[in-house]
């Protein structure tokens, strides 16, 4: 180890901030003739083939905090791909089925299946974008993506899709919420409103709705658990709509219903649930 007087140790600038270190590159080598030179460069990240040296533990800690460490676990990648593949199959099948069967003939109802399937795409992304986050920077970025996908897009789209079905049945004087698909759909919408209320209230404006601070933060684990259960319930509702509804009986063949509305929803739930980190909830 070089001594404090060694010329190889970066010096602090005099007359300036005591923590400001010269940004000059200091060549160091135990053997100048070996060609094995190393230098420190505070002005940016390390370049290929260069070892960046740090003179103090403080500098090292600051550098570690500025870097984002890998957060994924073994299996997270395939689970993500499984969920995205499943929701892609479900959405594409739904849109193709509607668009290829004279959607104008069905009026408002033609908006219902495509919008609900699109909302499920946003919900799937919104949930998974938060799952691997465990560092302050990634948590903050993940929360913004989650809020945008789930609240601004997913919630708005699924509400409009539900409204389209209600308007269609009202116009044609049909009974509302008679099928299992409709009943579970209504349950999902009511639950979703409560889910949004709980999630937004625990974080917006510092969680003032629920007492701020740790009181509000303590509710987040319940919001998380509730969301995972609701997510699975939504996929089950999609299964009911794609296999057991009147629309499915008319336009969806048995093989398509099996793949797009039975296997795909199950794959989505498996993919999302397998990425859950129960340690984040800490129920006691």
TrEMBL record:
Domain Cytochrome b561, first and last residues per copy: 112-242
InterPro entries: CYB561D1/2, Cyt_b561/ferric_Rdtase_TM
Compositional bias segments (type: Polar residues): 1-19
UniProt feature, compositional bias: Basic and acidic residues: 34-43
Pfam families (UniProt xref): Cytochrom_B561
Record's bilayer topology term: Multi-pass membrane protein
GO function terms (MF aspect): metal ion binding; transmembrane monodehydroascorbate reductase activity
Keyword Metal-binding: yes
Cofactor (UniProt): heme b
Keyword terms of this UniProt record: Electron transport, Heme, Iron, Membrane, Metal-binding, Transmembrane, Transmembrane helix, Transport
Segments of this protein annotated with the region Disordered: 1-48
Bilayer-crossing regions: 82-100, 106-128, 149-168, 180-204, 225-247, 253-274
A GO cellular-component term linked to this record: membrane
Localization terms from the record: Membrane
PANTHER family: CYTOCHROME B561 DOMAIN-CONTAINING PROTEIN, OS05G0565100 PROTEIN
Protein name: Cytochrome b561 domain-containing protein
Originating organism: Leucocoprinus leucothites
High-level lineage: Eukaryota, Fungi, Dikarya, Basidiomycota, Agaricomycotina
């Amino acid at each position: 180890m070089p001594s404090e007087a060694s010329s190889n140790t970066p010096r602090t600038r005099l007359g300036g901030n005591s923590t400001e270190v010269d940004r000059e590159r200091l060549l160091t080598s135990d053997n100048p003739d070996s060609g094995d030179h190393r230098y420190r460069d505070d002005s940016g990240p390390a370049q290929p083939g260069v070892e960046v040296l740090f003179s103090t533990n403080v500098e090292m800690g600051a550098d570690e905090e500025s870097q984002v460490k890998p957060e994924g676990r073994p299996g997270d990648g395939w689970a993500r791909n499984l969920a995205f593949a499943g929701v892609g199959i479900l959405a594409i099948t739904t849109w193709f089925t509607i668009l290829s069967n004279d959607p104008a003939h069905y009026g408002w109802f033609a908006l219902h299946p495509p919008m609900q399937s699109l909302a499920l795409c946003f919900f799937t992304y919104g949930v998974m974008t938060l799952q691997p986050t465990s560092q302050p920077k990634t948590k903050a970025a993940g929360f913004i993506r989650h809020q945008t996908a789930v609240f601004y897009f997913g919630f708005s789209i699924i509400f409009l899709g539900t409204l389209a079905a209600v308007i269609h049945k009202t116009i044609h004087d049909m009974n509302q919420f008679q099928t299992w698909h409709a009943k579970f759909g209504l349950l999902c919408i009511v639950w979703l409103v409560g889910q949004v209320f709980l999630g937004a209230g625990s974080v917006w404006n510092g969680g003032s709705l629920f007492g701020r601070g740790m009181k509000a933060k303590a509710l987040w684990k319940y919001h998380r658990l509730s969301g995972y259960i609701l997510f699975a319930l939504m996929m089950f509702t999609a299964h009911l709509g794609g296999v057991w509804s009147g629309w499915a009986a008319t336009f969806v063949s048995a093989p398509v219903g099996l793949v797009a509305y039975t296997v795909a929803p199950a794959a989505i739930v498996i993919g999302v649930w397998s990425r859950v980190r129960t340690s984040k909830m800490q129920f006691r």
